[in-house]
Amino acid sequence: MSSAIRKSIFSGVLFTTGFALFAKAWPANSIEHNQRPTEDQRIEVLNKIKDNHNFKNLLNNQDVTVLTHSSKIPKVHQTSHVSQGLLFGPQRLEIDPIVFMDEKNKELHAYYHLGKNLASFDGKIHNGVISTILDEFLCFCGFPYLPSKRGVTAKLSIDFLERVEPDATILLRAKVIEHKGRKVIIGGHVETLDAVPKKLAEANCVLVEPKWFKYFGWLPIFE
After folding, report:
1. Could you tell me the superkingdom of the organism this chain comes from (predicted)?
2. Domain residues for 67?
């Protein structure tokens, strides 16, 4: 057996082992166990969101499931997750995003609060933060329509319409535009919570499921 073939086999074994160990922990925690405690968040922001007209309508919609972002990510992986780890905390992402999933209409709504430490040199929220939020939740909206319920971003196009002020609560709206086989197209935007909402950014995401995902269908990460 040549050296190149041995290296290829060894690399494949390492990847498979690492992937399996990572995946093994994914379903081990219940939703209740994964959720961040309320006291780790800004209570006044949560109360403000709960008074929002759109929030109340979503709560009363029987086609909608409400959850928090952290509930879908085991604690063992939260610190290595961008928005649940690096960007989460006081003066950053100050609440555990509240998510409404409407599978009937293939829509998603997510409430965020952007703290002062996420501002760029010009005093406005860094566009990279907005990009991360849009990437995460447009994909989250599209996952249920892939064969394995998991995929990767193939393309993300964003049109930044307004710079976002720091210490702002925003609403992300996403909707599946088209899905077929291993590909889903999702559109969405971020807006303010004003009585007349102002769009801050619009995006379009192409989500795909790599062919090799089918070889890991037996792993619980794909359940």
Report:
1. Eukaryota
2. 3-222
Find the helix or strand (DSSP H, E) in which 58 lies: helix 53-59
Tally Cβ neighbours within 10 Å of residue 160.
14
Residues 137 and 151: their CA atoms lie apart, in Å, by 13
What CATH number should be reported for the domain holding residue 22? Answer: 3.10.129.10
Q: pLDDT tens digits for 167-187?
A: 999 999 999 999 999 999 999
Local confidence band at 10 (pLDDT 50, 70, 90 cut-offs): very low
Q: Please count the structural domains in the chain.
A: 1
64 versus 212: which is more confidently predicted?
Answer: 64
Q: How would you label 178-191 residue by residue, b for 16+ Cβ within 10 Å and e otherwise?
A: ebeebbbbbbbbbb
| Cα 59 off chain centre by | 20
